[in-house]
Design a protein that fits this description.
By secondary structure, the chain is mainly α. It has 6 helices and no strands.
Length: 137
């Protein structure tokens, strides 16, 4: 089996697209429309809170994806966005576990730590253990 057939097999296991509202709600058009408006408003509030949390302390991206998951209970476009995001995150995780990528990341980390250690050594050699600001004044 190649990767394309594996991907198609994975897609067939995913939940079908469409509304996940209870059947008695879907049976009544006005009730279903009200349900969709409610889901949209709640999802919008959660996504808005996540956007506010991006520059502030808090799990901004996690809250944004939670809002998208709320929208995905009712809207096909949100379901497709979440599927695409899940696929991209899975691909990135697989790439990160690749031995060549891990080796490269370890090498770059070691080089960065050596550069920091050299700069710290130069600072200590030139200035000693004195802080660059004067606290006692």
């Amino acid at each position: 089996m190649n990767a394309e057939s594996d991907q198609r097999a994975g897609e067939s296991e995913e939940a079908p697209l469409g509304s996940r509202a209870p059947e008695f709600i879907k049976a009544r058009r006005t009730l279903h429309l009200s349900w969709q408006v409610g889901v949209f408003v709640v999802g919008l509030a959660v996504v808005g809170a996540g956007i506010v949390m991006l520059p502030l302390p808090g799990p901004g991206w996690l809250v944004i994806f939670a809002g998208m998951a709320i929208w995905a209970t009712e809207f096909v476009w949100a379901q497709l966005v979440l599927r695409w995001t899940k696929r991209k995150v899975t691909e990135a995780a697989q790439r990160a576990l690749d031995p060549k990528v891990r080796r490269r990341n370890i090498i770059l980390t070691v080089i960065g730590l050596v550069i920091i250690a050299v700069l710290l050594g130069i600072y200590l050699w030139k200035f000693g253990l004195v802080m660059p600001w004067k606290i006692d004044e």
